[in-house]
Write a structure and sequence with these properties.
11 helices; 13 strands; about 25% strand; alpha/beta; three-stranded antiparallel sheet; about 25% helix
Length: about 300
């Protein structure tokens, strides 16, 4: 189970016993699954089979806008993304994506909505040639990502990792202009729960993803807010000139099934639903969509 890969640092305060118990609830009561892990301002441990324990500090956001992005947690989707990229596992069997390995060896990688930086850090440790960890340009969020990079990536490898503030859909700033189609892998974990941001997110993926034939975007997202919140994204990506190469569902135990926009006649049990995630592989469309208007680009208000 994915949640077994997250723990707490060894406490020095005896009052931390309650926190340890809370973090184990999803293991003790597996039906009461936690989708997010940790508390703002605390730290968690990601137990990587390949790289050992990675300690991740969780940001304590300032202001309502930053808090509502929920970058202050580690999400199951981010854990699954890290496992797929790092080739790890929660049950002793190598974790592979359907259709092959999600290797980043030698690739240029950009993570959108990186949060703690977990998946991007694993990409760097897994041999990516360049990694950009991006998130909403709040100073405390970016500073926290840099702390996690410095804590978990050996100094000799840090030069290939950068942290950038990026607001989805804003593609006219200097970084976006100079890095158009620059990344052979664009990754995003648990970024689909805000349907009002789908067009902006899709625009950023289209913009930063290399237009070479082997370039791919990897998407993982949980159903904790409901399928109806996620499904429209995959129509939008097609409308702007991407295509869905593959899409399926996987639960926290590694079981897989076909993706469907609705289950149980729209009355899917919430407890069961939040155990599942959607996994998708995107690429630039091989043939232009007849109604494609190209990427959506927001400009920065003056």
């Amino acid at each position: 189970m994915l949640s077994s890969l997250i723990g707490l640092p060894v406490p020095t305060d005896p009052d931390s016993t309650e926190d340890i118990f809370s973090s184990a609830l999803s293991t003790i009561f597996p039906d009461d699954l936690l989708n997010q892990h940790g508390d703002p301002g605390s730290s968690v441990i990601y137990k990587s089979k390949a790289f050992g324990d990675l300690e991740l500090r969780l940001v304590d956001p300032r202001g309502e806008d930053a808090r509502m992005l929920f970058a202050q947690y580690v999400w199951n989707s981010g854990i699954l993304m890290a496992e797929l990229i790092g080739g790890g596992t929660a049950d002793g069997h190598a974790m592979k994506a359907r259709g092959g390995s999600w290797s980043v060896m030698g690739e240029t990688v950009m993570e959108l909505g990186t949060g703690t930086g977990l998946a991007g850090i694993v990409a760097a440790l897994s041999g990516a040639g360049e990694v950009v960890l991006s998130d909403y340009p709040a100073p405390e969020i970016l500073a926290n990502i840099r702390t996690n990079v410095n804590r978990n990536i050996p100094q000799a490898s840090r030069s290939k990792v950068t942290v950038e503030g990026h607001e989805w859909g804003i593609l006219t700033d200097p970084f976006a202009v100079t890095h158009k189609h620059a990344y052979t892998r664009v990754i995003a974990a648990d970024c689909l729960w805000m349907p009002w941001q789908h067009l902006s997110l899709a625009g950023s993926i289209y913009h930063f993803l290399s237009d070479t034939k082997d370039a791919r975007a990897w998407i993982v997202a949980g159903f904790h807010t409901g399928r109806a919140m996620l499904a429209p994204f995959f129509d939008i990506v097609v409308d702007i000139g991407l295509e869905v190469e593959d899409i399926w569902e996987r639960d926290v135990d590694g079981c897989e099934r076909a993706w469907t926009e609705e289950r149980g006649g729209g009355g899917e049990d919430i407890t069961r639903r939040k155990r599942w995630m959607i996994i998708a592989v995107l690429r630039h469309a091989q043939k232009p969509h007849p109604q494609s208007n190209g990427p959506y680009i927001k400009t920065i208000a003056s």
